Amino acid sequence: MDPSSLSNPSEAKVDSLHLVLTVDFAKSCLAGYVDVVATLQNDQVSELKLDSNHLNVTGVTDLSNQPIKYHLAAKHEIFGTAIVIEVPQEQRGANKTFTARVHYSTTVESTALQWLSKEQTAGKQHPYLFSQCQAIHARSLVPCQDSPSNKVKYSAEITVPAPLTALMSASSTGKKVDGDKITYTFDQDIAIPTYLIAIVVGHLESREIGPRTMVWSEPEMVDSGAYEFANTEKFIQTGESLLTPYIWKRYDILLLPPSFPYGGMENPMLVFVTPTLLAGDRSLENVIAHEIAHSWCGNLVTNRFWSEFFLNEGFTVFVERKIIGRLYGEDMFQFEAINGLKHLKDDIDQFGATNPLTALRPNLDGIDPDDAFSSVPYDKGFNLLCYLQSLVGVTEFEAWLKSYIAHFAYQSITAEQMKNYFINYFTEKGMADAIAVVDWQSWFNNPGMPHNQVAFTCQLAEQAKELAKKWIATKGDGIESASDFQAFNSQQTILFLDTLLVLTANDHLPVDAIEKMDKLYHLTETRNAEYRAKWYSLCLQSGITRIQPLVAKFLVEQGRMKFVRPLYRELNKVNRELAVSTFTTHRNFYHNICSKMVAKDLGL
Ligand SMILES: CC/C=C\C/C=C\C[C@@H](O)/C=C/C=C/C=C\[C@@H](O)CCCC(=O)O
Ligand SMILES: [Zn+2]
Question: Recorded GO terms, molecular function (predicted)?
């Protein structure tokens, strides 16, 4: 039973959804109906329960629009309102199909949706709508069994104002122009968890960058996106060589407006990515590798519950770094791992090392998954896989991983199933002794940093760390050349800044040392979002007051939580007035999820 859902797939399992919706930008809502097709799991089942949140349900009928009895259960503050639909007596019975049409509209409170006025877009000519359903926001887009334990096929008919384009995480199957309206049709014939349902409507153009990849965005960014993501096909092919064939047909990329709250969201067939990836040198393409890796880890083999989120993200980070390692050398696998450890430690420090939410498999009963989100499932999950790999060897572990994906494809599984598959696989290989040392329960349930930490080594990383330590030791005295810093690749630059942040957290660099570093390295001028976020943090913690207005500007240029949440917290420490005024003035710029989390961070 999924503690994050109020639906009943173990009794009446939804197999497919058909959405018929009209997009109304004037009212900021989607209105229409969804046909829900379910299979009754036993003779006694009398109700179909669907999740909903912030929806206006106007009725439930059969496909002939004849009314069907239903009621709305009491609203749960976090998980929303269950729609309880009565299965007519004559339609009951094990393995019988029951179909209901739920007439509804979304509301301005629907947390899955962000509506942008034309002024908030790059082109300033047309409004824009996009969704973000992970973890439990799909229920505010469409009544559904909003649990990753249940996978559904879906199709849709979406009517929008001309000349806008609608896209979904599905195959586009048609477009019909009718005066000032356009109806787009879609079909997703591979069953997916509802958190992967996605929609975007806007003034969009596309550029083909590979045999199965288009980049979509507003015209103003589409060429930059085509350049930045040019290695996509190589990443997909590398993923296929590591794992199994890519089954999703297309891999299109949607480059969103800057308020998109995440680096990327792995919506199948149409991955959503932030424009903060547009570094101009493809240096942040690891996020594309990450989202591609989700095509196997998460989208094909799915965490059954949100408490098992590391099965999605830890495996994805591992495959992402394997892809990067295959293409750019093992050093880069090691490098990404070192960078990830810093992110993991920051998040565990932020939550507190004994906080149960820093367990790999936290108990999320009664907890909004958004509130539990951190890099723990990503990098602690990654470190578990590196530890397991260290016990059996790279070749054997990669063979297991390929077998694991093939075995559990199209399923939603638990950590216990993953563990048992690992144990059985290597026991059959005669390696039971090698893996007997694994303390699974500590890995799954203990809070804080991992107890069996694999050591990552990388010469490139040492160079970056050494330069940071040199600045700390000398406070910049004797450092007159920028050539070593200028020779760094993107990951080295990030690690250089991370090392400074870690090693000066309690013993800040003097202001004149930071100013000298800036004169040499011109970090204040960088347009690379990763560098900016880290440089601004370093300057804020070192008492560089001139940076504060630049931080405020960055905070309202983009809404990626990875950047805005830590920077709002840092700015709040040194200038609460500026932090609060910046946030309250621009609160509507951010996606609902982001504004909710930043408000909590600022104690508002
Ligand atoms: C232990 C946590 C359990 C459940 C959390 C599940 C989902 C949390 C919800 O907030 C959705 C997260 C979506 C993340 C999407 C993309 C990330 O992989 C990237 C985030 C970091 C970045 O911006 O690069
Ligand atoms: Zn991910």
Answer: metalloaminopeptidase activity; zinc ion binding
CA of 316, closest atom in ligand 1: 18
- Domain C-terminal end among 202, 220, 250: 202
pLDDT band at 458 (very low <50, low <70, confident <90, very high): confident
Residue range 40-63, pLDDT digits in tens: 999 999 999 999 999 999 999 999
Spatial distance between the Cα atoms of 528 and 543, rounded to a whole number of angstroms: 22
As given in the structure block, the two tokens for residue 517 are 């570093």
CATH number at residue 424: 1.10.390.10
ipTM for the complex shown: 0.96
Same domain, 48 and 158: yes
- 3-state SS of 464-527 is HHHHHHHHHHHCCCCCCCCHHHHCCCHHHHHHHHHHHHHHCCCCCCCHHHHHHHHHHHCHHHCC
Helix axes 330-351, 310-328, angle to 10 degrees: 150
Q: How far apart are CA 50 and CA 83, in angstroms?
A: 5
Q: Model-level pTM? A: 0.96
- CB 39 within 8 Å of CB 81: no
* b/e 164-195 (16+ beta carbons within 10 angstroms → b): bbbbbbbbbeeeeeeeeebbbbbbbebebbbb
Inside any domain, residue 490: yes
**Residue 240 annotated among the catalytic residues of the structure:** no
C-alpha of residue 271 to centroid of ligand 2, in Å: 11
Ligand 1: nearest atom to the Cα of 262: 23
Same domain, 422 and 366: yes
Cβ-count burial of 249 within 10 angstroms (0-12 exposed, 13-18 middle, 19+ buried)? exposed
Contact 51, 195 (CB under 8 A): no
Host domain of residue 493: 459-602
Reading the block at residue 236, the tokens are: 């997909």
Domains contained in the chain, number? 4
**CATH code of the domain in which 17 resides:** 2.60.40.1730
